[in-house]
Automatic annotation (TrEMBL):
Protein name listed in UniProt: RNase H type-1 domain-containing protein
Species this protein is from: Brassica rapa subsp. trilocularis
Superkingdom of the organism of origin: Eukaryota
Organism lineage: Eukaryota, Viridiplantae, Streptophyta, Embryophyta, Tracheophyta
């Protein structure tokens, strides 16, 4: 009976409805954005229908728990997905004075079982490049 009275009264009084919708949800509801009032009213309506048509009753705690859970579920579904940041060029710290940088690459062709490889070394004296290949490489 209380559910029916509250739902009827809240839906008829425009000022009360606007005030309820303007209320901020505080922790621990987990509803940081959006409004909780519409979800409470919806659950009151559902509880009223369950009582009227099926004879089922729900406690106030059950009704509120469902309202908060649905509001939280809705909020989580509405949050925009943050697109991944574009990859920025790799920023490496300056190399120590006597550091050697080695870059290596290789490729393999299954039909000829031939592997090719190359590498480049870079240090304070300059850059050197090397290449090679190997036959009958299984993979």
């Amino acid at each position: 009976m209380l559910h029916q009275f509250l739902a009827h009264r809240l839906l008829q009084e425009h000022d009360v409805w606007l005030e309820l919708c303007g209320k901020i949800c505080l922790p621990p509801t987990g509803v940081a954005t959006g409004q909780l009032a519409p979800w409470i009213i919806w659950q009151l309506w559902i509880a009223r229908n369950q009582l009227s048509f099926e004879g089922k009753t729900y406690t106030e705690e059950e009704t509120m728990t469902r309202a908060v859970a649905l509001a939280r579920e809705w909020q989580n579904a509405q949050e925009p997905k943050i697109p991944p940041k574009p990859k920025s060029p790799l920023c490496l710290p300056p190399r120590p004075p006597h550091c050697l940088v080695l870059n290596i690459d290789a490729a393999w062709k299954a039909t000829s079982m031939l592997a090719g490889f190359g590498w480049t070394t870079r240090d304070s004296a300059g850059t050197s490049s090397f290449t090679g290949y190997e036959r009958f490489v299984g993979s």
